[in-house]
């Protein structure tokens, strides 16, 4: 065995499979890392025995995993025995001696980064005009989120350089471009800069391994969980501020003081800080929300399907009478984005090995309904879009619509194939993550190219 | 033969304690021993053994320690405690009563199933 280890490993495939199994099991909150070690020892011994009986690596692995039992049932059993774990892991600083210095140092780094993000925002508000701040806000805050993640990932030099470039290039562009005040190209640029900046955060999140589809899917999970945590923090903060304002009001503190304290100091410091804290929470407590995301998608998928069918009926009945201005175009984009989110989160939370289920069919139905709604709306608008020529808003909304349509249409084909048992789930999953960079490129295009093309109007 | 799930669950604790009473062991070896003892008739889902062992550990009936296997893999060993031995004795008494009662029932009722099985 020890001599063998020096040779190229003949069981490389098996090792990869075991590593994948480990990662998969480890996502279960109720099963601790030590339990996974214990089960891995078991799995390996079972595999050795099966191999000795003449099975090849692949077969032994499959049988051994099968013998281990349904992961859902096993993790439920673990949860029954260790229900405390589900909560204990929420404790901010790990109580295990190993790695606790790293954890507490991480806490310190995170707090410093969160404060720095708040101070940078405050400085931005102080130094920049209101419009200029609105344009730059994402580029001021998100580098701190990226910085924290980069510190955690021990990002390599080239990855840092690329990330910095993704932040700096649009920052130069939007501040150098002579936008017409309040013009639509400026609003469009302000809306798309956060997407570009979030792409940079994603690059850091995947630790520079941006080709890895799995890491991209992890980033999708991270983004969703961050949104949920941030919302929770915002709600909690809102309650505190409300109570504070009420007490100040009763204590007859002049209302101007309350407002200036909140608007000038608390919000600029707290909102960016909360974003960093949310990022840290997601990292520290990976996947608590994985239990919520599937529930949310399960609740909203049938509701969305009903909403889409209602939209479809309304649009078809209105026929060519539909108000074909850009609002409809933007609403269509919003609907497709919502469906895309549902799709991404159902996929990211789904057991990739499970056979097609009722819910997968429902998801395909949502995709088809969304495509139908979009097709009807586009047909109703087609002539008028051509009639009035291109405006920046129309071009950008239409471009996004085409992108979303492409992703969702092919997802519907792949999802349908999966439900019919003709395609593996991995194809559907891989298509989503492969398509993600298209949005980054599109947002970059919109920020950098669209304003000059339309004369910064 | 399929053994009822509840029966497997009920007998799991005394079986594990009994096996550990013979000496320290670890998960996979315990499962193999159960398999041997039941002539391959009792099938446990492998993964289910561990929550059970952890429960016994929490109840203080067994204690665990991390060691290494002969090829150097990390392995968790379990040993029975004195409380575990006491629990085993108690369980043994309970099962003896149950087994006695069942044996008497078996004697008094001639089950058609059993005749077939004896012929088979």
From TrEMBL, chain B:
Q: Where is the Transcription regulator PadR N-terminal domain?
A: 16-88
What sections of the sequence does the record tag as coiled-coil? none
Q: Which domain of life is it from?
A: Bacteria
Q: Where is the signal peptide?
A: none
Q: Which Gene3D superfamilies match?
A: Winged helix-like DNA-binding domain superfamily/Winged helix DNA-binding domain
What Pfam families does the entry give?
Answer: PadR (PF03551)
Protein's recorded name: Helix-turn-helix transcriptional regulator
Q: From which lineage does this chain's organism come?
A: Bacteria, Bacillati, Actinomycetota, Actinomycetes, Propionibacteriales
């Amino acid at each position: 065995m020890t001599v063998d280890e020096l040779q190229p490993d003949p069981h490389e495939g098996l090792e990869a499979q075991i590593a994948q199994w480990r990662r998969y099991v480890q996502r279960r909150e109720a099963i601790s890392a030590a339990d996974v070690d214990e089960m891995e020892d078991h799995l390996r011994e079972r595999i050795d025995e099966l191999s000795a009986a003449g099975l090849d690596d692949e077969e032994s692995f499959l049988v051994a995993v099968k013998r281990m039992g349904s992961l859902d049932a096993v993790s439920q059993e673990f949860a029954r025995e260790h229900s405390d774990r589900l909560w204990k892991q929420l404790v901010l600083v790990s109580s295990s001696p190993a790695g606790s210095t790293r954890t507490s140092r991480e806490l310190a780094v995170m707090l410093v980064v969160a404060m720095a993000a708040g101070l940078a925002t405050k400085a931005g508000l102080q130094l920049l005009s209101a419009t200029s701040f609105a344009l730059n806000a994402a580029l001021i805050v998100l580098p701190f989120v990226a910085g924290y993640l980069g510190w955690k990932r021990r990002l390599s030099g080239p990855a840092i350089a690329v990330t910095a470039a993704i932040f700096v290039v649009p920052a130069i562009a939007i501040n150098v471009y002579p936008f017409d005040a309040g013009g639509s190209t400026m609003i469009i640029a302000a809306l798309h800069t956060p997407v570009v900046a979030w792409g940079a955060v994603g690059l850091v999140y995947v630790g520079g391994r941006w080709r890895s589809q799995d890491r991209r899917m992890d980033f999708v999970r991270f983004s969703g969980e961050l949104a949920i945590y941030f919302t929770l923090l915002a709600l909690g903060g809102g309650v505190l501020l409300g109570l504070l304002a009420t007490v100040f009001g009763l204590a007859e503190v002049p209302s101007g003081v309350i407002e200036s304290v909140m608007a000038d100091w608390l919000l600029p410091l707290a909102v960016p800080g909360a974003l960093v804290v949310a990022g840290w929470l997601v990292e520290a407590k990976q996947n608590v929300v994985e239990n919520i995301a599937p529930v949310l998608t399960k609740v909203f998928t049938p509701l969305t399907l009903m909403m889409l069918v209602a939209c479809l009926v309304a649009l078809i009945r209105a026929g060519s009478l539909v108000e074909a201005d850009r609002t409809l175009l933007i609403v269509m984009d919003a609907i497709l984005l919502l469906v895309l989110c549902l799709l991404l989160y159902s996929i990211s939370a789904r057991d990739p090995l499970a056979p097609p289920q009722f819910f997968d069919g429902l998801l395909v139905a949502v995709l088809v309904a969304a495509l139908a709604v979009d097709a009807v709306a586009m047909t109703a608008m087609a002539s008028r879009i051509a009639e009035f020529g291109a405006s920046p808003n129309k071009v950008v909304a239409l471009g996004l619509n085409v992108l979303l349509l492409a992703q969702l249409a092919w997802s519907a084909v792949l999802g349908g194939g999966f439900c019919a048992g003709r395609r593996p789930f991995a194809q559907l999953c891989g298509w989503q993550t492969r398509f993600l960079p298209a949005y980054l490129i599109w947002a970059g295009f919109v920020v950098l190219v669209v304003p000059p093309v339309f004369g910064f109007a | 033969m399929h053994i009822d799930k509840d029966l497997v669950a009920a007998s799991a604790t005394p079986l594990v304690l009994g096996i550990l009473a013979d000496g320290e062991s670890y998960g996979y070896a315990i499962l193999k021993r159960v398999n041997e003892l039941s002539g391959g008739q009792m099938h446990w889902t492998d993964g289910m053994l561990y929550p059970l062992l952890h429960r016994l550990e929490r109840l203080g009936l067994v204690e665990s320690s991390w060691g290494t296997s002969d090829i150097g893999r990390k392995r968790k060993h379990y040993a029975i405690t004195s409380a575990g031995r006491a629990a085993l004795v108690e369980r043994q008494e309970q099962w003896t009563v149950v087994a006695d009662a069942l044996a008497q029932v078996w004697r008094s009722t001639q089950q058609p199933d059993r005749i077939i099985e004896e012929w088979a």
